[in-house]
Amino acid sequence: MASLTDLTIVQLGAALAKKEASAVEVADAHLAKLDEHRALNAFITETPEKARAMAAASDARRAKGEAGLLEGIPLAIKDLFCTEGVQTTAASHILEGFVPQYESTVTTNLWKSGAVMVGKTNLDEFAMGSSNMTSHFGGVENPWKRKGDNRKLVPGGSSGGSAAAVAAYMVPGSTGTDTGGSIRQPASFCGIVGLKPTYGRCSRWGVVAFASSLDQPGPFARTVEDTALLLQAMSGHDPKDSTSAPLPVPDFAAAARNPDIKGLKVGIPKQYRVDGTSPEIAALWDKGMEMLKAAGAVPVEVSLPHTKYALPAYYIVAPAECSSNLARYDGVRYGLRVPGKDLADMYESTRGAGFGKEVRRRIMIGTYVLSAGYYDAYYKKAQQIRALIARDFRQAFEKCDVLLTPTAPTAAFAAGDKMDDPVTMYLNDMFTIPASMAGLPGISVPAGLDKDGLPLGLQLIGRAFDEETMLRAAAALEKAAAFSGRATGY
Amino acid sequence: MALDKDTVARIARLARLKVPDEDLAPLAGELSGIFAWIEQLNEVDTRDVEPLSSVSDVTLPMRADKVTDGGMAAKVLANAPGGAVYIDSSDKNAGGFFTVPKVVE
Question: Per-residue confidence at B103, pLDDT binned at 50, 70, 90?
Fold first, then answer.
């Protein structure tokens, strides 16, 4: 049998069911990989004791014949999900040492399915970033390197630790959150699958909030079917999140096992052909369409005229919501406190010292656009643009069933690049943000390698609450692309 | 729109962020750059467009106005950075307080 850490979630599930390995053995094998690859800095907190205890409990459940959907599967959890009794930092100094007294709904659902937590993964501070370089605990290293070039590359962001952990075979799956591309872009950079569900599919309760009208938890794994299995376990209506959709959870894994896309109309949005996209990515996008066509899909050109305005509108909406959400970090109830000469000075000193540069920048943008006299010019305008973006997608989906686009305009870049000008960094999310603004589901599937040997992903965008069609198309793309690349040199 | 140092200082104060004086000018430059890039939104005619504040079509659900949990003061106060004060040290869930610097003389 192959090494336990080489197996997918589906394969691990089969091995556990056949008693070829125990959950404790599976956990130990993966914990050894966390040890081996600690230099990647993918984890902020490792939880080996908890993992072994959860695995032992899983073995006991299985012995009683009570195996859940993810029974005994080790997972890494983005350090933005509150985990009871385990430090949760959002990669920020201001939350360092914070130990939640409750468990997020998504992780509760995963543990109910039998999954085992091995640790909490690194991210951009408060999920604000596209490179993982804004983490208070240092950046994550992408397990992939360019051929013949030993420079460290970023794993993307913000869920970079979760993506790197899966790409480095430290875990078969992990959780992320996606506000403007924070699952899909790192999945593309790390050569794995990452899925942002429809807004409302997964509960946000217990997830540290960044931009509440955009934030959505979702899974990472190495195959489409594994990703679908994780989504199935994570999803479901939650009365504790008023925006959680009161809908039943479909059999996502079954959709992912059915790559039949004969007659499926795949939209190609012409506005996604923009300057600044690597020619290799443009070529891969064409090839992706050819592959889907060969599998029976019908290409349809569609127009999303407000695409170029999604990014600047996002940089009003997201910071505005962030400035409101992050007002709670005041040094009174949890997290860091820096003493001051009076209460106001304590607030200002705590927040000045506790938040990193990018977070402070976004809080200030948000505060400004919401301040008296500027609200209509910025915030209302951005929400109107958001309405137009959502309308574009609705009209496109009258002509097609899914959209195919690149995930990111480039492959992974070197650590420290694109740091001089914030806007250059923001452009990384140009292909992922429009779907976020419209609340639509998106998935990044690894589809090829560039000339430097780095993975490139393609994105499929689905209709709201139609992850199943998107997963079918993703499975077809995965099958046709037969991506077999694996990170080396880490 | 270009922001000057004073405006940045005012925003920092509104946001309750201590920003050292020497950081104000570079921040003004960065924020001005971001707002100049955002200005392109003015190319779009948004007259009569209803602003979209949430993508969920779902009407916010109603529930009975009843207490659904509580009696966990010890958990609520567990992470208090200034320490907590309990009404009854033998029963922490009976209630307690966060501590802050003196506000009223």
Answer: confident
Across A294-323, average pLDDT: 97
Q: What is the signed CA dihedral for A233, A235, A239, A242, rounded to 10 degrees?
A: 160
Neighbours of A22 (CB within 10 A): 18
Indicate yes or no: CB of A344 within 8 angstroms of CB of B11. no
Q: Are residues A120 and A255 in the same domain?
A: yes
Beta carbons of A388 and B19 less than 8 Å apart: no
CA distance A98 to chain B (A): 6
Task: Please choose, from the candidates A441, A217, A241, A382, the residue with its C-alpha nearest in 3D space to the C-alpha of residue B53.
Answer: A382
Nearest to A351 among B7, B16, B46 (CB): B16
Q: Name the 3-class secondary structure at A221.
A: strand
Q: How far apart are CA A326 and CA A208, in angstroms?
A: 10
Interchain CB contact of B26 with A (< 8 Å): no
Nearest neighbour of B14 by CB, restricted to A331, A371, A387: A371
A356-371 pLDDT per residue, tens: 999 999 999 999 999 9
Using DSSP's 3-state secondary structure scheme, residue A468 falls into helix
Please tell me whether residues A22 and A92 are part of one structural domain: yes
A224 and A348 inside one domain: no
**Measured between alpha carbons, how far is A237 from A231 in angstroms, rounded to an integer?**
13
Give how far A332 is from chain B: nearest CA, Å. Answer: 6
**The total number of structural domains that make up chain A:** 2
Q: Where are chain B's structural domains? A: 5-43, 71-105
| Chain A residues close to B12, C-beta within 8 Å | 364
- The count of CB pairs under 8 A between chains A and B is 158
The answer to whether A85 contacts chain B (CB < 8 Å) is: no
CA pair distance A480, A476, nearest whole angstrom: 6
Closest CA of chain B from A242, distance in Å = 6
Q: Distances from the Cα of A257 to the Cαs of A254, A264, A323, A473, in angstroms?
A: 5, 16, 42, 11
Q: Catalytic site residue A174?
A: no
